[in-house]
Amino acid sequence: MLVLALVWVVVGLVVGALALGAGLRPRTWGQRGWLGMLGVGVAAALVGGVLGSLLFGRFFSTAVALWISVVAVALAPRLVLLRQR
Fold first, then answer.
1. Average pLDDT of 40-66?
2. pLDDT tens across 2-52, in order?
3. What is the 3-class SS of 3-24, one letter each residue?
């Protein structure tokens, strides 16, 4: 399970880095916003991996972690903007 958790962390880092490359980081997060985007990706991947492991088993848990982290990283900037209004 530790190896799976490390894989989920790497998946989250990759998704967060891709979101940074796409320019999804909100400007209101300041200079350290890139770290927040990576953190959102890692946290979402870990939560998604655990949920995927519990619901679907170890075989599909990494795919669930990937999809949940993609959705979370894509929606996080929009949710931040909605909260500030």
1. 95
2. 999 999 999 999 999 999 999 888 888 888 889 999 999 999 999 999 999
3. HHHHHHHHHHHHHHHHHHHHCC
Locate 75 and state its tokens: 């929606």
User: Hey, what are 7's tokens?
Assistant: 């894989």
Structure tokens belonging to residue 37: 């985007």
Lookup: tokens for 84: 């500030």
3-state secondary structure 27-52: HHHCCCHHHHHHHHHHHHHHHHHHHH
Domain boundaries, the chain: 2-22+29-84
For the record, the structure tokens of 81 come out as 């903007």
